[in-house]
Amino acid sequence: MPGVRDIRRRIKAVRNTQQITKAMKMVAAAKLLKAQARVTAARPYAGKLREVLGRVVTGEEQAVHPLLAPREIRRVTIVAFTSDRGLAGSYNVNVVRRTLSALDETRGAGREPSVIAVGRKGIAALSRRGAPISVQIPGLREEADLELARDLVGRLRKAYLDGETDEVVLIYTRFFSALTQRVVTSRLLPITQDLVAAAQEGTNGKGSEAPRSPAAGGEGEYIYEPSPEGVLEILLARYLEVQIYHAIIEAKASEHGARMTAMENATNNATDMIDRLTLEFNKARQAAITREVSEIVGGAEALKG
Fold first, then answer.
1. Are strands 112-118 and 167-175 parallel, antiparallel or unpaired?
2. Is residue 211 part of a domain?
3. CA-CA distance, 22 to 95, in Å (whole number)?
């Protein structure tokens, strides 16, 4: 059984760790509030943009665009969003696991995969497992990173139009609450009939009914200015930016939520450990006192003899 001094040192070390985890929990909670506000504000815009694009694509004056043209899928690009820092529970592990599963499925279908890894943790984990990483993007900022979204759109759009890839898939963590985050897989390119379904359902991205325009009900039609091709080009560029930007802010909010939960659990575990060590400390001190009393009594009896 460890001595009183050793137990006291362990209690002090655990208490110091508890203070660190508690502080990290408070910091993550503060960051989560800002990230959650960005996610809440962006979801309706992303849903409405998807709906409008779907209606334009299925309009009577539908314009042909390379991003909409179907093609045989032979090469697949997977964009995986992780964090630059750890101590976030299973947040990064779940994304890496889903990415590796997507790689196996792609190879199983006879297609050639490549990975764009966003975040240092994902880069390190996927590199150790031999994933075919083509682009590494570390250094995610805490604030909403629209520049990163535009840079990714430029890379992916060029690769798709040049024939370097035939499909682009996003893997990120969708934020539901501080306790619930789920890894989702979303196809970014090519833009398929999913947009058509969203437009026909008339949803606003939250599952509720969205207000319909005259063109959506079949009683009117769109008037394009300057041209259907020009409008579609602008909408497609904005759609791609918004989808990637939305994935980034969802991932950041999920990271902060996962870290806050992990640090709260660590703080609670430290409290339980301190309670157990305090009990051991009291037992050890009581045993030491009892032993000293016994030695005193034994010495007194020896003197009497």
1. unpaired
2. yes
3. 26
DSSP 198-251: HHHHTB-SSSSBPPPPTTTTTSS----SS-HHHHHHHHHHHHHHHHHHHHHHHH
71 vs 229, residue with greater confidence: 71
Cross-strand pairs, 174: 182
Residue 174 phi/psi, 5-degree rounding, is: -90, 135
Length of the chain: 305
Over range 15-33, report the average pLDDT: 92
Backbone angles phi, psi at 88, to 5 degrees: -125, 30
Confirm whether 63 is domain-assigned.
Answer: yes
pLDDT for 208 equals 39
Collapsing DSSP states into helix, strand and coil, what is residue 88? coil
Cβ–Cβ under 8 Å, residues 89 and 83: no
CATH number at residue 174: 3.40.1380.10
pLDDT in tens, 241-277: 888 998 999 999 999 999 999 999 999 999 999 999 8
